[in-house]
Amino acid sequence: MALTTAQAMTLPGMEMRLLAGRAGLARVVRWAHVSELADPVPWLRGGELVMTIGLGLPADGEGRRAYVERLSGAGCAALAFALGEAVTEVPGDVLAAADACGLPVLEILTPFIAVSEAVARWHADERVRGERRVVAAQEAMARAALVSGTSGILRALAEHAGGEVLLLDPHGGPRASVPPGERPWHARAVEAAGSTARRSAGVMDDGIEAVQVQSLGFSGPPTGWLAVRTASPLDWHVRMLTNHAVCLLAIELLGVRAGRARSHAQRAALLSAVLDGGLSTRQLGELCSVAAPPYEVVVAGPRVPVEAAVEALADVVADAEAEELAFVCPRPEGVLFVLPDDGRRRGEELCARLGAAGGGCRALSLDELPAAARHAAALAGRGDGYTHVDDLEAWALLRDAVDPEAARRFSGAVLRPLREYEARHGGHLVASVRAYLEAGENLEIAARRLGVHRNTLRRRLAAAERVSGRPLTDPGHRLQLWLAVSLGDLVPPGRVTGHPPE
């Protein structure tokens, strides 16, 4: 709250009357000062109630008008005369100039020192009142933080600062505002936040409105930005409230980030169990919330910190509900993202935010997630930016030419004898046949990859030949086995149509 000239005239013990310049009674009185100089302007800072007995008043009318105009231009609050010492009345040209400039001219009957003391006392009392308001506002913001989190802090700040509030994300994008919706001053705040990547604070004041922009966070790059718009000039208590809100928001964001990290870690453990074969996709849906299909599967890496991945996901998705249904899963080949697929392909933006190579694939169901993850990881491993399966024409054509259900039936029919034997006697026949074929039918290499003796692998392959009824030297049999064990890896999931193209 500011002390105006009109209020200063009514302070306890004051005896003043207005002579001219009624239009300027709302001018703010910052201090009361005595000056008998012919030009006191160089010694003033603005907001002074200048008191004089008229010794410095120019003798000519033109000089007196210039005297008043200089005081008004310097931002003085009012000019007060004690009559009877040097002048018995205020000259008419002074009053005329004061009316023209809107500078109040007063007759003062109170001792100058009493006026100075009264103004100083008012400002001291106002400081105490302001501190009490700040304490009350800080308590209100703290309660709001406990009850409503970020939104409560912003509402309380806007109410007690008497202005508007905007919260920005680390990249300068609007996250929340009070009142809601875009406002004309938001663009200035976004520009100020985007002009530096370091933590900082600043005020833009055009004499009509003041916009304070302050970074969030206690160390490292900003975790966001808080902007507050109030009338000019910016009051000291608004600065204090903004600083307090910044601390509360930084703590709130740290808590949100910690909670988000814990949630994603729990979900990542479940998804890893699915990918490693220890959990079924049906059990995954029972143990945690999963978005409806289809899914965008992205692998970014390698060596991407999972904390950075979680933050990148929050920034790219920009939807708390969608983020809660996503997965961020650290894997040996990189960080795996599983997102609800709405056709926007967020994988490229995710990898760009993380500065990592990446690959993407579409999954039409939870059952397709392991295959989609393998294809995305293979593309990420190329290390040449981001590539989606659909951008590789041959892969996409092969996927659309093969009916996934028919491929599963084919694999089941070819491998059924081997799997039935494994169920009764063990022996890992399917894995052994696959390793042998992938090694170019080199027994030594395949045995090393499986971690078994070559004689053990030889016995397994002989059992596979006996069970299937055909030797592995038969090219047609080898081709059937190779397609049966590899078709899921060779053909990416995410087939849009349910029927092969004509």
TrEMBL record:
Residues 9-121 form the Purine catabolism PurC-like domain. It holds the Pfam family HTH_30. Residues 429-485 form the PucR C-terminal helix-turn-helix domain. It comes from the Bacteria. InterPro entries: CdaR-like_regulators, PucR_C-HTH_dom, PucR_C-HTH_sf, PucR_dom. This is Purine catabolism regulator. It comes from Nonomuraea roseoviolacea subsp. carminata.
